[in-house]
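Bit of a strange request maybe. I'm writing a small parser for structure token strings and I need a real example to test against, not something I typed by hand. Could someone generate the tokens for this chain?
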Amino acid sequence: MSTATIDPAATRPPRPEPRRTSALTQARLLTARQARQGMRIPVFMVMNLLQPMIWLLLFGQLFRSVIEIPGFAGGADVSYLEYLTPGVVMMTAMGGAAWAGTTFVQDMDRGVMDRFLASPTSRGALLSATMAWYALLACGQALVVVGVAWLGGARFAGGVPGVLVMLVAVALLSCLFAALSGAVALLTRQQEALIGVSQLLTIPLMFLSSAVMDPSLAPDWIATAAKVNPFDWAVVVARDALQGFADPGTVWLHLGLLAAAVAVMGGLASLAFRAYRRAV
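Reply from user aminoacidic:
Good idea to test on real output. This should exercise your parser:
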């Protein structure tokens, strides 16, 4: 009587399927990674606040008589420091997020980006994590700027609701420029190119807005450019919210425009991952 040979592999229990991590969980973990990297270089966050403090404290005093110009939008009830604060808040947010692509460039140089893209890691999670970290960082810095302005004598009729709406605009503006910076980094793969594009965009956008001066007092072409400038949309939201929601319709309109711009730029940045993969 022959004895049948039993395959030991047939008696083993089936291996469990590898657990897939959701894109939301990936984004959360990658955001924590971004935060750890940022916390290792606290001087970066301090230096990113140095220039806004110069704008706020030096320019706020140097140009405080600007509000006396006939036709100035702030009016007699608003000091120049109160007018300038929303602009400085958004300068800080835009300036910080414009460097978001630096993380991508570093990951490319170290080979980390290739490993991410070869793994099941979601491209959307990679982008969302960068956007989320810079939005959180910008919101924290915005609170510091508003606090310093308050210590300098600025008072904001919008109170806590106004500050919260301002933070929404800060987060959206940060996400917009973080996505743009990430796309530039993926397409150029060079730190120098990223710096050049960032400077080329942020400085003109800052001055083609109502951040430091009422556009109605500027040449007509600057006032026209401000109307289609996403940076100015955020400034308008923050200023109206902090000053007490004099025109709620304008606030919601510009928040909607910012959200739409973030969605479009996020989609374009996602396509940049494909271009990077083809290039390498």
